[in-house]
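pasting for ref. prot 1 ->
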Amino acid sequence: MKRTTLLTAVLLLSLPVLAWAAEPPAAPPAPPAAQPAPAIPRDTKPVTPPAVENAAGAIPAPADVAAPPADAQTTASGLASKVLKPGTGTAHPGPTDTVKVDYTGWTTDGKMFDSSISRGKPAVLPLDKVISGWGEGLQLMVKGETRRLWIPVALAYGGRAGKPQGALVFDVTLLDIVGPPPPALADVAAPPADAQRTSSGLISKVLTPGTGTRHPKATSIVKVHYTGWTTDGKMFDSSHSRGVPANFNLQKVIPGWTEGIQLMTEGESRRIWVPEKLAYRGQHGFPQGTLVFDVELLEIVKE
């Protein structure tokens, strides 16, 4: 399943610099007006940023961009690194953790090709979906640390056309360790007998009662954390993996979300089984069939 074309693109796969997989697919065409909007409003999707090269305001390359200094640490794989600023944490990311980082990358001739700092927005990246030099290098770090990585071509893009060539150099600051993606649910294939059913066919179950008394309206804007799975247990989207809650206008989401979120109160967590007729109705490029969401309603931003 093409995760980048689903509810929201996982940020890593939308970045041209770090993804090791095949080139990310183009965004799907907008669905016809008569069909439901995606669960995540189209205007909240991350836009694929262009790589920055020789641009005005480019961040200058470090003096040692061409080769690591003698006091750099080198691992058995050939990855070299040097701590520029010690971290404040003690835990290291795991190989499947998602991390929040600021970074800048250069080729060894000093040309900057990408930078979250230039874009003014940190990146949230799963370490099992990045070039292997990043996956290895970030696991050496702790929260708050800034480290320079010299990544040999074998641990970068291996000469792939359209990608930065040769050895690459990155300055990376580890801002946060988000953690691994949520596991699949035991009852993802079918709702339990004690789940609530509405006349539309929507099924849900309260996981954690709310602390508020207000319910959103069909026109409300809400702040939520959520994860979505298909009924075969495959996760296709998660705000937890990105480490950032999402704001949604309930008029611009799939009908199952519009109905299901209105059942909730602030602070509540609920599992929602959304039948296909209340989800994407078989639209090409979107999750198929019945979908299952765990949703935590953090705030009713606007009624």
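and prot 2 ->
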Amino acid sequence: MISRAGFFNLFETELKNNIMKKTISVSNGAATLDTNRRNFLKLSGVGLALAGLTLVGCNDDDFTMIDNGNVFDLGTGDVGVLNYAYALEQLEADFYTKVVNNFYSGISAEEKQIFTDLYHHEVIHRDFFKAAIGGAAPNSILPTLEFQYPGVNFSDRNSVLATAKALEDTGVAAYNGAGKYITNPDYLVLAGKIVSVEARHAAAIRDLISPRTAAFSGDDVINAMGLDLAKEPKDIVAAAGSFFKTPFTWKERGI
């Protein structure tokens, strides 16, 4: 069986070799953890790797970058959506980096492993979008952003879990809401693969907060049709805006 380290090294090699042809409200709660959640997340990570994430056939002429002084605009067309996803993945990767670099007091070994798995997944997502957009439209890639976490206490379990819940729920709704703006079917397949992993993250965090309850698929995120909520980009940015220290615009979507 391949080790965790071997799995991520293998995925990173695949990523480098195959990426291009042209190339918030939060709530707290107590919880415990069991290994079934860990296996659930491991399966989502393996599924993402085996999916063979690739972006193909981009044309720089399809994309534009709007220079609004020192404020970056995400652009138009598919590249705008990809930069939007890249911004959100940067945020999630940054958050989990802070979590794993200084775990909150009293964290269990299993909770450490869960957060470490989430950290690896989000870093893979972030680096994938960076490489993909850089290969497809190198003059239109969102720069590295800076973040801030007002009101978040990284030493407190409830605060970390509540923030993780808000970020994961927001991420799922963001992908669902932006999917209709993607014109390239390859990109749409890619977004579907990644949002499925984000949904597993959201379910796992919710189960940590309220173990063995229906909260993992609560009515606040699943609608009457049994579908995850979808939110417009402007609503997502408004909800998560306090975390973004680096400003950006997306004029095509009214941001």
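Residues 109-136 form the longest helix (28 residues).
The chain is about 55% helix and 5% strand.
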